[in-house]
Amino acid sequence: MKSLRGVRGFVVGLLSGCMLMLTMPTMAATVKKFVLGEATYPIEVNGSTYESDQLPVMNYKGSTYVPLRAVGDLLGATVGWDNAQKRVIITYGGGGPIQNNAFRNVQVTGSAGKYTVTGEGRVFEAVMSYAVEDGHNYLLEKNYMLSEGAPAWSAFKLNISIPANKLPQNGTLMLQLFEYSAKDGSKVNILNIPLETFGG
């Protein structure tokens, strides 16, 4: 009787071990690990050196890795996170018009939660939409009625106000201009525009 229990325990243990062995490669296949070392050389752009104890410059197989926002600051670019589309948005080249097929000549003025956005829109039935997000959540979403619908271009002026307690402490406040598709109601002609970057 004892030997039967022993055999049964051995079989259960063997089966458990086999199942564990089969699942381990699957789990390992979904996790990628990279070993980076801290770079011992400085990073200098246009005479400015990047230094940070919390987010240091790293090296991986001879390639240098610097935090994206730090690169943006050094180059005078704006780096933001578009939570709706799950992607990083980098705007560079200061002063040029921001535009796509539905919105053009977009300009932003203001700071500290008070912004004026002007430009021209060309959207179906003259209804454009806009939203402001902090990298994680929408802080507002509204519609705006243009004077004419597509194919005509119509001027718009948005006065945007975000309460101080909703402004991000560290990150970029992003404006999203878009229109809803007449076919399926999805967002189309999305144009992401940085309003202001907060923190370091």
UniProtKB/TrEMBL annotation:
Span of domain Copper amine oxidase-like N-terminal: 45-94
Residues in Bacterial spore germination immunoglobulin-like domain copies: 113-186
Entry's transmembrane regions: none
UniProt cross-references to InterPro entries, sorted A to Z: Cu_amine_oxidase-like_N, Gmad2_Ig-like_dom, Mao_N_sf
Keywords for the protein's UniProt record, in alphabetical order: Signal
Signal sequence extent: 1-28
Annotated protein name in UniProt: Copper amine oxidase-like protein
Gene source species: Paenibacillus taihuensis
